[in-house]
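It is worth pausing here to work through a concrete case rather than discussing structure prediction in the abstract. The textbook approach is simple: state the sequence, then state the predicted structure, then interpret. We follow exactly that order.
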Amino acid sequence: MQTINTVTGPIDAEELGRTLAHEHVFVVNEDYRLNFLPEWDEDAEVANAISVLGELKTLGIDSLLDASVAGMGRNVARVRRVAEQVELNIPVATGLFTYNDLPLQLHYTGPGLGFDAAEPLVEAFVRDLTEGIPHSGGAKAAFLVCVIEAEGLTPGVERIMRAVGQASVATGAPVVVHTNPHTRSGLIAQRVLGEEGVDLRRVMLAHSGDTGDLEYLRRLASAGSIIGLDRFGVDVLLPHEVRMATLLALVGEGYADRIALSQSAFCFSDWFDPAKQPKVTPNWNYRQISERVVPTLIGEGIAPSTIDTMLVDVPRRFLAGDPDPGLPAPISLISGLSTEN
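Step two, the predicted structure:
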């Protein structure tokens, strides 16, 4: 029996069900909260999250992958409080989120640095995956997260990505990479993780749906990776109509088995003024897949089994470690990967 770790404990992989493959519950950096959010009410925010996420079961959603990690204010104990009160499986992640530099605590400690030591990031990530996340009540991470944004493969970003790759190889855990499709950074992520020995079929390239560049998306999928069409509702970055047209084109070309659907939504984020965010992005919520995307797919004649492939099979295969044998093996592709536009 294959099991998947969630914030409240392991579940059978078959229990995952329909899954939103890239979301957040809270994006709240604790240093920022303590110093710049004097009105923060812990109990009220947890109660709001319980109310918001409690609706998802009625929309046919069984699970939600929380991709929040250190650097985004990961607080697994807070997420656990919510998960214990909703009918929703919430696997959580380990990793480190930055567009550029590492936290100062890591600037001087590591291989070849002033305090020369084995990479502490690998040790921390492996611990989260195998022993449990500190201060979480024993919850284990189910996947890893790293980032490569428009700033590119900076020294800090590369150090984290290689540590994530090494932790993935050591534990068998899959990897989500926050990418910027406009700089084609998914190709760089595939190259670096491939060099570390990661099975590219266990890599989900998040935010790939922020572009309608089908040639780029085909290249990512052809190496076996999962394409994250995971910002439905963020119309300010790409209109919904373009996102849907891209999804329909890829499904029509046979890529459904390499597509993950989601919204990258949140119950609270300290990146935005809560009063202004709904006015700028009124459709950015957890309901877009159930209320807009799936009905459109059905209306376009997409088979229910194909929809289940994207919402059920792909997330389960990603987390459970059971790559489809029909997908390309990554070893033969690594030498052919290119970061050129």
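Step three, interpretation. Confidence is low (pLDDT under 50) at residues 330-341. The radius of gyration is 19 Å.
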